[in-house]
Amino acid sequence: MSPVIDPLTLIFASIFTSNILLANFLGTCSFIAISKDVNSANGLGIAVIVVLVLSSVISWPLLHFILLPLNMIYLDLFVYIIVIAAVVQALEMIIERASPALYMSLGIYLPLIVANCAILGVVLFMEIRNYDFFQAAVFGFGSGVGWWLAIVAMAAMRKKIDKAPVPAGLQGPGITLITMGFMAMAFVGFSGILRVQ
Amino acid sequence: MFSVETLVQQALWVGLVSVLMALMITIIDSIVNNYGEVVVSINGKKDLTVKGGSKLLATLADQGVFLPSACGGRGSCGACKCQVDTDVGPHLPTETPYMTDKELKQNVRLACQVKVKSDIKISIPEELFNIKKLTCKVEKIVDVTYDIKEVTLKMPHGTELSYVSGQYGQFEVPPYGDSKEATARAYSFSSNPQRKDELEFLIRLVPGGIVTTYVHQHLKVGQNINVIVPVGDFHVRDTDAAMICVAGGSGMAPFKSIFNDMIERGTMGTRDVWYFFGARTTRDTYYLDWLWSLDKKYERFHFVPALSEPKPGESWDGPVGLITEVLDKYLQEKIPLDQAKEGYLCGSPGMLDACMNVMRKNKMTEDKIYFDKFA
What are the structural domain ranges in chain B? Predict the structure, then answer.
């Protein structure tokens, strides 16, 4: 049975209290690599939102009309990855046409959204938590927005960090990971507001 | 746990999902990547109506306009520069390393990186219209060393090609083995430009190279092969300055052409020519007899071959060491420092850069050093 949660709560929860990046630590590698520059971070964030919504929306019927009835749930990872890869490929073609500059700045990280664990994580959460179709879509969207928010915030902070006297050994990914830890601690504060699983 | 039928059924479902997704991609691809027909306008004179969606270099080549390209469109040689007069988006990171500030400002682009998406205006030098694709018959293949072949092509009947020594042609080999499409690579002419009926190239086997492997293992006498000719702007300047020529390996090619051309024109012997040729062992040397005979015949032609790694027991009484060291020594000791000099270099990027340093160190100015870099 799907849980009883109203969509607003679900959105709030997926953006803040159980942020896919800062509470679940999923999708960290591209988060660290692309958060150097606000524009690219913004672009990648939006791409992740689109991929998340589409893959949740496509995976849900596959889960409920094929995987579960046919007793082949053990193949879920396999099917989800096919879906995610296809969605990313399609999105890649569309971005290349619509915005070559964004396409170049995202570089290898665009196709690598396929391997962004945030996407697979959200789809698997959708399965484990028994969301209905509408909830899956909302959760996908909310998680995407949460990821986007986190990466844009981080890119903005890194602009400031660039000017700070960071010890040589910690420059780049090092200080980014530490900053991300602080952000995660701040987000822990949200989890007192409500708890959604 | 499952019967065979169930497993087959499940596999079919997974297959169905994949097919659906592939279908989705195909549909999106046909919508997104369909640019329809676009017009490429060259120099405001020639309008070509082409199918959009391919790179500019390939689009132009399909229409019989050949921009120079040494690497065959991989973005590694920077030769296919052309000025684009319409806005086709900012320079890509793959282009900027090859551009000067001035070129960036003029929106000079690498044709192999720019995709033709809508109507586009470009400017190219008029002489590029002379570049053509010829189908030539292989007349002769000679092994000059264990890894360098001298390939002679017969010009198609009735075609006359005028080119200058130092220019190059692009060899196009058909798909074979793992290479799924026709591939082109550039090789300097080693033939004498006065001989209009044939073209000659020196092609060295590069391990893993698509075109060189084809030439060395599959190319047969009598076979037809496509070449795009003539390309490049490496040529001898008509001055009295001493020519300091440096070549390594198959970099001999343009100099063979240049020297033969000079002999034919009667300019050989009227200016000082120093030819430094670098090889590893005697196994890598070739044409020595011919070059020594030039050295003997022309007082102002000086041939200096050097071996960098001679094997013990090899009969070699010439200089030993990297060609740059030999060059340095000669520039300091044998060639007058105040004599006007021009540098002509052909070889690998590493060798060229090292030679440039040595030449600069010996008071040769950069604008008088001309080179043909293997890309």
Answer: 37-128, 131-231, 242-373
Distance from the Cα of B17 to chain A's closest Cα (Å) equals 7
The ipTM (two decimal places) reads 0.78
Q: Helices A38-62 and A133-161, interaxial angle, to 10°?
A: 160
**How far apart (Å, rounded) are the C-alpha atoms in residues A130 and A133?**
9
Give chain A positions within 8 Å (CB) of B24. Answer: 86, 90
> B131-231 adopts what CATH topology?
Elongation Factor Tu (Ef-tu); domain 3 (2.40.30)
Q: B14 to chain A: nearest residue by CA?
A: A79
**Token pair recorded at residue B36:** 């329809």
Q: Chain B contact for A62, CB < 8 A?
A: yes
pLDDT of residue B375: 62
pLDDT single digits (tens) B255-312: 999 999 999 988 998 999 999 999 999 899 999 999 999 999 999 999 999 999 888 8
**Across the interface, which of A75, A93, A100 has its CB nearest the CB of B14?**
A75
DSSP state of B176: B
Residue type, A97: R
CATH code of the domain occupying B37-128: 3.10.20.30
Q: In this complex, is the C-beta atom of A71 within 8 Å of any C-beta atom belonging to chain B?
A: yes
Q: How far is A87 from chain B (nearest CA, A)?
A: 8
Q: φ and ψ at B131, to 5 degrees?
A: -70, 130
A4, two tokens: 């009883």
Predicted local distance difference test score (pLDDT) of residue A195: 67
Continuous segment of H or E residues that includes residue B143:
strand B132-143
> For domain B242-373, is the CATH number 3.30.70.3040?
no
Strand ranges of the sheet holding B37-42, from the earlier edge strand across to the other edge: B46-51, B37-42, B120-123, B81-84, B108-110
